[in-house]
Specification:
four-stranded antiparallel β-sheet; 42% helix; alpha+beta; elongated
């Protein structure tokens, strides 16, 4: 079969669908102008969030968990000594997994267990971050998975950026409308 002949066979059906689609589309009597605004607001971070943990290996699962728990107790005590409030500490993960002999793909006999205990910590006094890290690493934390600098309250900064984005969008719309000889209507 000729491909051009097949196309012409479907042409009337496609034309009908196009007419139906165009008649169903709402007709807009007035011109529509769409713009995107951009707003930026910057601030210096005032807090840090870190995810730290302790890993402990032992031949038995219970011994691995016990070792990780003891080390985490020391880490939590150090955090309290350094003024970190309990509300700024939360458990991220508690895991135990077998270590296998021989293969790194999970095969082989169980040679022991590794326990992991992780917490997320918010450090509100940013100037003490180095001392906090030194303290917990000295007391048994042997895993630092994440460290991010943040704002304690980002809402005012987000509001400023949003207001700037709206002002920028309005400015862009005004320039385009003036250039096209149109008047701006409601947003």
């Amino acid at each position: 079969p000729n491909p051009a002949r097949r196309l012409w066979r479907w042409a009337p059906a496609l034309a009908c669908l196009l007419v139906i689609a165009l008649s169903a589309a709402p007709l807009r009597a007035e011109p529509l102008l769409r713009v995107i605004g951009e707003g930026v607001a910057e601030a210096t971070p005032d807090t840090a969030r870190l995810v730290l943990g302790v890993r402990h290996e032992a031949r038995e699962a219970a011994a691995a968990m016990e070792g990780a728990s003891r080390a985490m107790e020391a880490v939590l005590a150090r955090l309290a000594e350094q003024g970190i409030a309990p509300a700024d500490i939360r458990t991220e993960a508690v895991q135990i997994s077998p270590r296998r002999a021989g293969s790194s793909l999970g095969g082989g006999a169980v040679a022991g267990y590794e326990a992991l205990n992780e917490v997320s910590v918010r450090v509100r006094a940013l100037e003490s971050l180095g001392a906090v890290l030194d303290g917990v690493l000295g007391d048994g934390a042997n895993s630092l998975r994440a460290l991010s600098l943040e704002l304690a309250d980002p809402a005012p900064l987000q509001d400023t950026a949003r207001a700037r984005a709206v002002a920028d969008a309005y400015h862009r719309a005004r320039v385009l409308a003036d250039a096209a000889g149109l008047a701006l209507g409601p947003v």
